[in-house]
Write a structure and sequence with these properties.
Blueprint: E1 5-11, E2 18-21, E3 24-27, E4 31-37, H1 51-68, E5 76-83, E6 95-101, H2 106-122, H3 126-137, E7 141-144, E8 148-151, E9 162-166, H4 178-198, E10 204-209, E11 224-229, H5 236-241, H6 250-258
Antiparallel strand pairs: 1-4, 2-3, 4-6, 5-6, 5-10, 7-8, 8-9, 9-11, 10-11
Length: about 260
């Protein structure tokens, strides 16, 4: 039987208390932080479970996105998985985390601007263009199934950086059907297993990108998962410029994982 636990720490109010201190702006701490304990087995990683277990984990992720979005104060929910100490994991027991905030994070705001700019210039979502192009080229594809594509993105920031993207346009992870969650369980298991077996079980950050709640009916954004292995160090050049040095071209990384 699949046993999964949820730990919650939340502080929700109906309004933000914003104040000024000279030139600085402050607000009260509100939101939610939840930890999903994915299995009672301390040493069994997510991909080592069967697809039914992973499907159950994904259903919990989806249900938390749905419930947290019902709060009037929450604007954005970020789900992530830190695996390995180099990726920031302080606990070795397999788990994922969910943090809901009353503001839209800077990275999400910048990503939304990029999606919007591409839509205005091309009349289409960028990932809706990217997925069929990558599927046709096949040089950066890791694996795929009927509903999802797993690939190393063009100009990847990190060696073996891999994205999992729905083939059909979907704005919110909270609205994914059970059918598609099963396909997601399948491709997530395959992708994580390939990384573990081919790249010597690297530390990584898994980040689920979904649209902010106020964009539920928007057609521009496309939810997806980013898996960022920590095989190189982010140092002065990267912090100073925002440019990343990746010694492994995504074409080579995908070929290595695939073959």
């Amino acid at each position: 039987m699949c046993q999964i636990n949820l730990l919650r720490c939340s502080k929700k109010n109906d309004s933000l208390d914003i104040s000024k201190n000279g030139i600085y702006e402050m607000m009260n701490g509100v939101g939610a932080h939840e930890v999903v304990i994915e299995s009672p087995d301390h040493n069994k990683e997510l991909y080592e479970h069967d697809k039914e277990h992973i499907f159950t984990v994904l259903k919990i992720w989806r249900s938390r996105y749905q419930e947290l979005g019902n709060s009037s104060i929450i604007k954005y929910t970020q789900l992530f998985r830190n695996y390995g100490s180099a990726a920031g994991a302080s606990l070795t027991h397999p788990h994922s985390q969910i943090i809901a905030t009353p503001i839209i994070p800077k990275n999400i705001t910048e990503e939304l601007e990029g999606f919007k700019r591409y839509y205005e210039e091309n009349g289409k979502c960028i990932l809706c263009d990217m997925v069929p192009f990558e599927a046709k080229e096949k040089v950066r594809v890791v694996t795929e199934n009927e509903e999802f594509l797993s690939f190393c993105p063009f100009a990847a920031r990190f060696p073996f950086e891999t994205w999992i993207v729905p083939k059909n346009h979907e704005n919110q992870f909270s609205e994914v059907s059970d059918k598609n969650l099963r396909y997601l369980a399948d491709i997530l298991k395959k992708t994580l297993k390939l990384l573990a077996e081919k790249v010597n079980d690297p530390p990584y950050n898994l980040i689920l990108r979904s649209a902010p709640y106020f964009l539920k009916k928007d057609t521009i954004y496309h939810w997806h998962i980013q898996i960022l292995p920590r095989l190189t160090k982010v140092a002065g050049f990267e912090w100073g410029t925002g440019y990343y040095i990746n010694p492994t071209p995504p074409e080579d990384a995908a070929t290595y994982l695939r073959e």
